[in-house]
UniProtKB/TrEMBL annotation:
SUPFAM superfamilies: P-loop containing nucleoside triphosphate hydrolases. PROSITE patterns: ARF, RAB, RAS, RHO. This is Uncharacterized protein. GO terms for molecular function: GTP binding; GTPase activity.
Amino acid sequence: MNNEYSDTFKILTIGDTCVGKTSLLYRSQENIFRADTKNTIGIDFTQRDLERNYKKYKLYIWDTAGQERFKSVTRAYYRDAHAAFLVFDLTNPESLQNIRTWYKDLMNKFNYNGNSSKPIVLLIGNKSDLTKTVKHSDIIELVDELKIPIYLNTSAKTGEHVDDMFESLLDLLITNNNINKAYNSIHLSRSSKTSRCCK
């Protein structure tokens, strides 16, 4: 890891095609909205630096295609991810329902069974600048069902909550990372004591 950064994290953007995943990244990186954004083919990559408590963190962000024909390609990039934005379109109820499939695909790639560690997931409802047709109750039901820690409405067009999604994710990543380091430290300490006792 580059000594300039306290830590680096691999992040995925996942969801149906045309929900605005790439547009959110353009807004985040360049603070612009591109109305002519084309569908991602396979996979795309960008990165973002953030600071917290005078420490620098780098997010490596993998923008995945939402089309069915690219799923076998994009799933290969799920491995070793620390977190994922699950993105749906607030004007398209089907894109919310499909989040369950995307979530299942992600967890299957990690062989998550409810006990092992899993990537942090944030649910992102994009296109909040348009008239919403997704029911808020359906969103809350999904958040509760999948035990998603944070849900945000965003707009790649206006920039609403786009920075918040990255800042909120970083806070969760740092907290989770500190917990894992503390656990590993305790585990190593216990292993060391056990080893000495057995000699």
